[in-house]
Amino acid sequence: MPYPSDRERDRPWVMRTYAGHSSAAASNALYRRNLAKGQTGLSVAFDLPTQTGYDPDHELSRGEVGKVGVPISHIGDMRQLFDGIPLAEANTSMTINATAMWLLALYVSVAEEQAEEKGLDRDEMLAKLAGTTQNDIIKEYLSRGTYVFPPGPSLRLITDMVAWAVQHVPKWNPINICSYHLQEVGASPVQEVAYAMCTAISVLDAVRDSGQLPDDRFGEVVGRISFFVNAGVRFIEEMCKMRAFGVLWEEITRDRYGIENPKQRRFRYGVQVNSLGLTEQQPENNVQRIVLEMLAVSLSRNARARAIQLPAWNEALGLPRPWDQQWALRMQQVLAYETDLLEYEDLFDGSPVIQAKVDEIVNGARAEIDRVQAMGGAVAAVESGYMKSQMVSSLAERRRRVEAGEDVVVGLNKFDTTEPSPLQAEGAKAIETIDPRVEREASEAVRAWRANRDASTVDESLRGLREAAKTGANLVTATVSCARAGVTTGEWASALREVFGEYRAPTGVSGASAAGAAGAALAGVRERVAKAGEDLGERLRILVGKPGLDGHSNGAEQVAVRARDVGFEVVYQGIRLTPSQIVAAAVQEGVHVVGLSVLSGSHLEVVPAVVEGLKAAGVTDVPVVLGGIIPPSDAAELLKRGVARVFTPKDYELTEIMDEIVTVIRKAHGLTES
């Protein structure tokens, strides 16, 4: 996007809403409506099977299809997703990481088909494509958990994409270095800046060392690196964080990589404001939170976001409706077009208060960058568990402050009396829901797709992909061939799994600490845990499980840390487990309670499967408790189906949750309270 000179009115940023669900057809209709309302860019949310490389009919996809995004299984789905939307004129952000190369190949293939239909030159069409694939796998090991392959092969996929994109789709950002999710799992501003910069260094070093581009084109690589950040409600601090990002990126690109062109050194970022800070209690308060967070990334002209997407007020309750997304878009439009924000030069240049805060973040981030680089860089810091432990510990401290009332969250731990909300009036459909038929229809559709294609062409393209993966060849070309042949998402990922293997990242729980968590309440629960253990003749054991493909593990990790702090023996094996694997672990470890965490909306499918699996295994005295974003009607249904307790975001006191779990265990074993 061109930058105006000083004294010109600044151009509005690209306005997006993060959207996609159910099916490619339903999402296409949603995108068209949003574009008609004045949205200037698309932000595609993919469902978890697509993000983790599975087809809709895979066992791990159960309950996940179309829930948190759109399922894209093959090129036919991608055609449908962008039907009637000219890709040469679009600005498309795709939140996809482990399978980013695959989705870019599908997108490029559809763009080429559009060029052919219009009689346009293929290369001219590709040169017009604008947008980004998130493609930051480092933060997936630390936060969202949609990684597939080990860090080394994952970095290779990113490297190949960056090199290929610079040569063939020069306006495309092949990666967003994504600090957004680091903040969601507890990163301080210093950690968020430092770890994002460490990731960028790892990617740039890998592309440079791959030799796929001549040295005189490396500036083009740097110029296509973009960032995707979070903005919390402490909007002055967040604004200073963005200025600090710019300072450090200028230093790194100039001093480490010798980039002379100031345009190529420009810190370019998009933002979604902080979904983690949205509350289930008094959700109408989320509106003012979102507006304040938007100001953090728009007030300072010299550090202004060039693309913004806002969550909806009710995302802590479930999937937002189209009207809710419209409300979020209108917030951006009012700020950009009704106010005078874009008419002035930077409002904060020369402020000693702002400069002092920027310097504090910059100096702290420099020290942490040096620490990670001394370990061998971001990949080594992931593999050792260092960065993950830092995140888990930081979030544990944040939760402690909220629980202690040191950090005020309006409507949650203070000012919690409320009038009934007309936004949630009885009978009002407060969230979007996904029809269970979506998964069944998607599974049937992908099976039909497989049956109606040229099997020999598919086999040949997959064989070519496997062979290329065993060499140093750039994998984008082989991936595009697979896309055109009709290969499915699951088949592409499976072929690479065969060559690269799979990976389970360190959980960070064993090395995490929850300093300051002790107190009268914690001591009281610790006594109850010890007493229940004495009554049962063994130490209490809890299995914390993440069924399905939901990789947002910070809640499960915090439960595991607090359970350990109150005296439980904790069994936590990380993310992405089938119900049968969780049942087997519960039986093998002889646990006294199973705690499940589900944030993706798959709870009605995967949680009863665990309850029924325990019964089938003859385990009748191990209760199942659940935590997650669970609508009240679903919670009632789960309780009927054998779940002992359901905890939602309003149950933020982890020590109280531990106390309730002890009560559940005593009841399951017929123990009376002493």
Would you write up a description of this structure?
With 674 residues, the chain is an alpha/beta fold. It starts with 13 loop residues before the first strand and ends in a 6-residue tail after the last helix.
Outline the biggest β-sheet.
Answer: 5 strands, parallel
What general form does the structure show? globular
Number of strands: 15
- The tally of helices reads 26
Helicity range = 40-55%
Rg over CA atoms, rounded to whole Å, is: 25 Å
The portion of residues forming beta strands comes to 5-15%
Distance between the termini: 68 Å
Regions with little confidence, pLDDT below 50 for 5+ residues: none
Average of per-residue pLDDT values? 89
Strand order of the largest sheet: 1-10-9-8-7
Find the structural class using helix and strand composition.
Answer: alpha/beta
Family: Belongs to the methylmalonyl-CoA mutase family.
Subunit structure: Heterodimer of an alpha and a beta chain.
Keywords: Cobalamin, Cobalt, Isomerase, Metal-binding
Domain B12-binding: 539-668
Label this structure with key terms:
674 residues, 5-stranded parallel beta sheet, globular, alpha/beta
Task: Produce a short descriptive summary.
Heterodimer of an alpha and a beta chain. The chain is α/β, with parallel strands linked by helices and 674 residues long.
Topology:
Blueprint: E1 14-16, E2 18-19, H1 24-36, E3 42-45, H2 48-52, H3 75-81, E4 91-95, H4 100-118, H5 122-128, E5 130-133, H6 138-144, H7 151-168, E6 172-173, E7 175-178, H8 180-184, H9 189-210, H10 218-223, E8 225-231, H11 235-256, E9 269-273, H12 285-296, E10 307-309, H13 322-338, H14 352-375, H15 378-383, H16 386-404, H17 437-451, H18 455-469, H19 475-485, H20 489-500, H21 520-536, E11 541-545, H22 554-565, E12 569-572, H23 579-589, E13 593-598, H24 603-616, E14 624-628, H25 632-640, E15 645-647, H26 654-668
Parallel strand pairs: 1-10, 2-3, 3-4, 4-5, 5-6, 7-8, 8-9, 9-10, 11-12, 11-13, 13-14, 14-15
Helix pairs in contact: 1-3, 4-19, 7-9, 9-11, 9-14, 11-12, 11-14, 18-19, 18-20, 21-26, 23-24
